[in-house]
Amino acid sequence: MRKKRLDDILLDQTQVTEAQIKIALKHQKIYGGRFGSLLMHHGFINEENLVNALATQFECEGVIISNLTISDDILNLIPPDIATSRMVVPFDYDEKDNTVYVACEEPDNQNLIDELKFIIPDKNLKLYVAAELALVNIITIFYKPQLENNKTQKNPYSGTSKLSSDLICDEFDDISDIVEISSKSALLVTDDDSYTPLIKMLLEEDNYKVITTNSADDAIDIIKDKKFDVVFIKDTVSGDYLDLIDRLRKNSPSTFVRYFESTTQILLNEKDNESEYSLIERNLEIFLSLLSIKDKNNINHSGRVGEYVKKLCDILGLPLKDKMLVVNAGYIHDLARFYYPSLSNENYKKVIKETVSLLTSFNYDPVVVEMIRSMYIDLKKKYTKRLPIEILGGNIITICDLYCKNITNEQQLTVDRFEILKQKFQDLKGHLFLPEVAKAFMRLIQKEMLNSKAINKFSQILIYSNLPEGMLPLETHLNKERFRTITVNNINTFIKLYNRSNPDIILLNLTSNKADIIDTVNMMKSENIHFNEIPTLVLTNNDLIDQIQSLTKEGIEDIIEHQLNHDFIVMKIKKIRDRTEKRATRQKSVIKGESSTKGNLSDLNLIDLLQALGPSQRTAKIKVESAHSEEEELIIYLHHGNIIYAELSGIKGADAVYQALGWPNGTWSVEQIKEDNLPEPNNEIPNESILMEGCRLIDETTFTKKVNV
Question: Which residues pair with 211 in a beta bridge?
């Protein structure tokens, strides 16, 4: 059963007005934050009003915590990191009942309850709801100074609680402490005496301390006692340079190693490959999402493993070239599952074997193939001195794969689950996991567990569905991606929330029949829901998609099969978010009033540009060039935001603007000018009228083209 909305409760209690709610929601959309805190911030309600409403919403007791005097002994019952990250404050202790009373934001959060029980195992707990701002005040005064003091202590896990450090370090105390890399140190292994002084000079100019040797065997002795930021190895040096590379990888995976044939190769920037790497990663993500859709899998396990592999490579600090190979292998480590549907996910050895055979038949990169072959192998305490990239990559994928199988995307990582997983890792350390990989992965999931989740500014999704329970899996996925969702099954409530909250995106889950779907959309439009202003997706049955394509003319952005893989739908929403935020950023840069601003019509079209500049009261010259013809150039002059002059190829006034409003591609520039530089006006039509007439002409032209076709 869904909790009653806080704004509805406050309205029922006559504590706020609709106008005040709109102000708070608008502020929330722009800056984020909790709705109740924003009402307090604006002075619409006080702490007591908010706590009473929250107590009604959560059906529990509330506490006005700012009125209490809390002893340090009670506050110290919860470590500062946990209090800060989970927004909890212990405020009383009943010795008779052995019960600690804790103020928090979400007293019905079972994960929070389990975590607090883990932290205070010998006492009973009772949770009260409290106002966020009051909690923040106490945490800032009492807990934050403790955190600042902890940061000054020498601790490889600086910034995390003692509890969290113990969770990791106690289990890996046999791993050697992290050795700090000497600041800007380089090892140059080359037998090319003619260029060695030049390379050394260039490195020293960039503040590197350089050590040189002409033998790979000598270099192996050097790295026993010292770690380096970068190591350059010439292909002609004597000794086993492959052994040197493997030992470097074991000694310090984050060391940048460059194997070169000629001196000029050293000057090549590794960043040249970054765009290629990003493209490969993105293509793999899309490819696996499509395969998951084909197999009707709600969760893209392969893609999730690939994402964690990437994060772990970043923590280990692998060079880009090695990272590209490992992440590639991570995304396709179980590719055979899609080719052979009869393969069981539980029989991971069979999946790995078939994937290796499949990739080998494709003549795939042998290093990637060997990484996958190396998954789940028994290390038997090998690789203590040297570490081939194939073994390191296979081990990284193994630990990420095991984690993703144990902690699904729908589950929240909590201390109790962390404990179970940690014990598994402890049992398998030295046999299945390399110590350095296990330690880095523990740091990764510890960070995920303790990090407080920031809310995206573009985050509010309003969902209408006649079967709201069926939307819960998708809602859960969206919530994991930091989107805030509201789902309703009543059109009147939907319209009310639309007018009140001004959502960033709308999802309509309509699966009945063509007539009902079209009637529902038209009814919403008649209530002034502007689908052409807010990105709107319709989720429906596959057999209805073609029948309701006419809705795209009503402003609906896309019609998608509602049974599709959730990753695909979320990816679509993320794409809309990125596009919207990019456009908003561009609009802000235009409104700010820089002396000169440039952009592309594909990012911000002429209609949006004029809408952004109108309210800004700018006096400026706008030049718009079409991508299809160098001769097509529109010149517009604004006086206090109003179009007073326009010209395009001899056409003047509003007619010139109409010609260019539909240009999909091209460039524009805005130059701020003085009033003395304005030409004689040739237009008196208001901006709004020009834009409305221009949009009508665009629609008319589009319709005519379709009819002619």
Answer: 187
- Token pair, residue 696, equals 């009508």
Q: If pLDDT is split at 50, 70 and 90, which confidence band does 228 have? A: confident
Give the separation between CA 365 and CA 373, rounded to whole angstroms.
Answer: 13
Eight-state DSSP code of residue 238: B
Q: Are 445 and 462 in contact (CB under 8 A)?
A: no
* DSSP annotation of 469: G
Contact 100, 93 (CB under 8 A): yes
CA angle 495, 558, 465 (to 5 degrees): 40
How confident is the model over 71-104, as pLDDT tens digits?
888 998 988 878 887 889 999 999 999 999 999 9
Alpha helices in 297-434 (DSSP H): 301-316, 320-331, 336-339, 348-361, 366-373, 389-406, 415-428
pTM of structure? 0.43
DSSP secondary structure, 509-555, as one string: E--S-HHHHHHHHHHHHHTT--TTTS-EEEEE-GGGTGGGGGGGGGT
- Check residue 84 and give its pLDDT: 83
Residue 637 CB partners (closer than 8 Å, separation 6+): 620, 621, 622, 643, 644, 645, 646, 673, 678, 679
Question: Residue 550 is which amino acid?
Answer: S
Question: Measuring CA to CA, how many Å separate 176 from each of 60, 179, 581?
Answer: 49, 8, 45
CA distance from start to end of the chain: 52
- Assess contact for 634 and 657: CB atoms under 8 A: yes
Reply yes or no on whether the pLDDT at 174 is more than 80: no
For residue 435, how many other CB atoms are within 10 A of its CB? 16
Which residue ranges form the domains of the chain, and what is each CATH number? Answer: 6-164 (3.30.300.160), 185-268 (3.40.50.2300), 272-450 (1.10.3210.10), 460-575 (3.40.50.2300), 593-708 (no CATH)
Tens digit of each residue's pLDDT (9 = 90 or more) over 13-72: 989 888 888 888 877 765 567 888 888 877 889 999 999 999 999 999 999 998 888 988
DSSP string, 604-666: S-HHHHHHHHTTTT--EEEEEEESS-TT-EEEEEEETTEEEEEEETTEETHHHHHHHTT--SE
Under DSSP, is residue 411 helix (H, G, I), strand (E, B) or coil?
coil
- The single-letter code of the amino acid at 69 is T
Closest CA to 556 of 607, 603, 605, 522: 522
CA 703 to chain centre: 39
